[in-house]
Amino acid sequence: MEKFKIKDLQYTYNHDGIFTHIDSANKQDKYYLDIDKNIPLVFCKGSVVKPYFRTEANISADILREYLGGSESLEHYNAKMEFWRTKKMLSNNNMIVAHTSKVEYRIKEINKVVDVAFFDENGDLLIAIEVLHTNPKKFKDIQKFNQINTPVYEYNINTRTSELISYGDFNEEKRKKQQRDSERIVKGKEHIQRLKEDIRRFNKKVREDDENYEEERAEIEPIEREINLIERGYGSNLYRKYKESEYYNSELQKQIERITDERRARERKLQNYSQVALNLNF
Fold first, then answer.
1. What is the mean pLDDT of residues 214-222?
2. Do 100 and 182 lie in a common domain?
3. Rounded distance, CA 269 to CA 250, Å?
4. d(Cα 270, Cα 265) in Å, to the nearest integer?
């Protein structure tokens, strides 16, 4: 039996139940192997050794093996959960993108559990993925896969390549639809990224406008103090300054109104962008 290396673990759940990759972990949060938080782990990170997870003192390797199904390696688990998290798989330079995904999914038609299942926006099974670490799928497994209306891929952890091991009852039209859907999803995500960039630029402009307003306000305050003196009956020279400040204040008010109108226009534009993204189901 292969040695169980808990330091190879890449994915855990934090104390809020958020699925977390080791690159996003920190020493402040608590981590667990399972979503039910029954198997606590400790995140370790130093200046020399790369980050890793370890078990608490009262957790044995047998408990981890039981959770992972007895014979599943951590390499197999990591690869499986990576597909589940990203909802993407590269095959022959084509990126297959899922709307949703599930791990350890049972295909009822053939009563067989696959490592990962990708689904389209209608909830239909798009592809199935079997992760290969040491034992490739046998001929009898492929015969079963040939009975369903879904292509099945085998992903090789060692070579980081995927191979189509069963077309299933998969016609050309459905294959073309899969490609169109994948392209549409990728384009939609790119569009959302552009919207996020627009929002970032908008927020930067708002901050700059606020800073300019504060600077201009600092210039107005001395003038307002002179106006108070005028109201109390002081000097004609101050009256001239009062008129100048009155004009300046009017121009500033117009500028503030213009900035406000521009901000509202940007907000309406971003709302329209968001509606477009929602229509794409993102």
1. 76
2. no
3. 29
4. 9
